[in-house]
């Protein structure tokens, strides 16, 4: 991808990542699969999860491909972790999105999967023990007309990202803050929120709210109770990762309502 050598950080991936629904039929090459596997090994060690890459299983997406929701979807990441573990679900969103951003830098297209796959069929092709479950999935592959796509300059890809779907405003994503607090918010918080606005979420609901406390300098992320649902914890993890990358150094606690401490 032209210009990608200068844009190898995950924050740059945030600026060009879009949800891809149409894929070329070309298989993910072994070299790219090895790159992804190395990324997965490192991420799984950090996350204490078992996120897996599964290739060449179009049956998993047969209905979605037939309906036109996807085109040529055949590969996926299965986010696997312990059953009934809310923190693990959140970690799944956080760390699997790191893999998504890495895949973006490799020139691959991705899209978080909510209901548009056969989850039982997906489970047949990966390792899920009796004490584990699949939290969610990510379809992955070469974007349609990918040779044209990868020839685009970084600036062209950022413009595609900026205009590909509507997003909530800074005010909407921080609606629990007062106008005075928003006006006083430091630039690193605004940078974090700019990255949050570009985060994927289930059905594009963007259900995570952020607030900065001017007295303590801490940030809290919480699930909007009006938009809570089965994938909200996954979305919480994704949004926290985007914020952390946008804000720079700092660290989150796990859980709904946990704090981010800027370092």
UniProtKB/TrEMBL annotation:
Family annotation (SUPFAM superfamilies): FMN-dependent nitroreductase-like
Any one Pfam family match given in the protein's UniProt record, by short name: TM1586_NiRdase
InterPro entries in the record: Nitroreductase-like, TM1586_NiRdase
Domain of life: Bacteria
Transmembrane regions: none
GO molecular function: oxidoreductase activity
Annotated ranges, domain Putative nitroreductase TM1586: 10-247
Name of the protein: Nitroreductase family protein
The organism of origin for this protein: Bifidobacterium moraviense
């Amino acid at each position: 991808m032209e210009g990608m050598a200068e844009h190898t950080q995950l924050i740059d991936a945030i600026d060009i990542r879009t949800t891809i629904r149409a894929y070329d039929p070309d298989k993910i090459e072994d070299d790219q699969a090895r790159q992804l596997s190395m990324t997965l090994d490192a991420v799984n060690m950090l996350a204490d999860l078992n996120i897996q890459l599964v290739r060449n299983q179009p049956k998993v997406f047969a209905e979605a491909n037939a309906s036109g929701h996807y085109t040529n979807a055949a590969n996926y990441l299965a986010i696997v972790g312990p059953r009934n573990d809310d923190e693990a679900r959140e970690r799944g969103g956080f760390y699997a999105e790191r893999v998504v951003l890495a895949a973006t830098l490799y020139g691959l297209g991705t899209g978080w999967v909510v209901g548009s796959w056969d989850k039982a069929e997906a489970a047949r092709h990966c390792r899920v023990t009796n004490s584990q479950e699949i939290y969610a999935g990510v379809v992955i592959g070469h974007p349609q007309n990918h040779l044209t796509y990868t020839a685009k300059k970084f600036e062209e890809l950022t413009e595609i990202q900026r205009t590909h779907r509507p997003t909530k405003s800074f005010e909407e994503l921080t609606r629990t803050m007062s106008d005075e607090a928003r006006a006083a918010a430091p630039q690193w918080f605004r940078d974090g929120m700019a990255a949050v606005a570009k985060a994927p979420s289930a059905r594009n609901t963007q259900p995570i709210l952020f607030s900065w406390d001017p007295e303590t300098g801490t940030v809290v992320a919480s699930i909007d109770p009006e938009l809570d649902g089965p994938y909200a914890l996954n979305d919480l993890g994704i949004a926290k990762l985007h914020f952390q990358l946008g804000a720079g150094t700092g660290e989150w606690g796990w859980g709904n309502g946990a704090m981010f401490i800027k370092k």
